[in-house]
Amino acid sequence: MLRIYVAQISTYGRIVSTVAEAAGIKHETVPTDSKAPEHRARHPFMKTPAVEITDNGQTIAMYESAAICPYIDDVYNTGDLQPSDPLERARMRQWMAVTDHYVFPLTEERLVLPRIVVPMMGREPREDLIREALPAIQYYIQVVEDRLQETPFLAGTAFSLADIFMYCTMVAVSLTPEGKAMLGQMPGVQRWMKACSTQPCLEATRWPMESEM
């Protein structure tokens, strides 16, 4: 049993849930305030997601999706989402890191949150900050496009953890007008998103507001 402690709607919560779906492991999402004092015991840096995995009477606690997802895949899915070829596995880790450190932080903070979450809270987004970030967002997505012009999936020939990380991030981007327009100019990304969207594990975690690819 996998318990995922995460915000109600979360890109990284979806990433972990998707890997659990692929592995066939029973899982539940526990809506969590990352700033709640009790959450510090799960994640000392007060972020989400964090997980607890209970198996054969033993419970393992873990945080950071880049550690959680390979562990679930290795233990419960015979590593099927990780290439056996050393170079492709390195590429997988490279593109997971690109998502973690570049694409997600910028698109989340400067486009997805202000365009989607801020209005839901009854506030007006800072249009000047969104406009300021758009050239960098365009550049980051173009880097992904360039890779997908070379190969079917980010790690190489097969769908992997890297695709799950990036796809969930790109779906959130696609829900904004600016992101949808950018992605519409990226044929490699569009082809790849369509291919990823048919994966049963991603179909199972589809957001209610997710646009059709």
Structure keywords:
single chain, 213 residues, alpha+beta, four-stranded mixed β-sheet, globular
Strand segment tally: 4
Distance between the termini: 31 Å
Q: How do the SSEs run, as a string of H and E? A: EHEEEHHHHHHH
The percent range for helix content is: 55-70%
Tally of alpha and pi helices: 8
- The share of residues in extended strands comes to 5-15%
> What composes the largest sheet?
4 strands, mixed
Radius of gyration: 17 Å
What does this structure look like?
This protein is of the alpha+beta class. It is built from 8 helices and 4 strands; from the N terminus they run E-H-E-E-E-H-H-H-H-H-H-H. It has helices spanning 11-23, 65-76, 86-120, 127-148, 161-174, 177-183, 187-197, 200-204, and strands at residues 2-6, 27-31, 50-55, 58-63. The chain has a 4-stranded mixed β-sheet with strand order 2-1-3-4, covered by helices on one side. Helix 3 packs antiparallel against helix 4 (127-148). It is globular, with a radius of gyration of 17 Å. The model has no long low-confidence stretch (mean pLDDT 95).
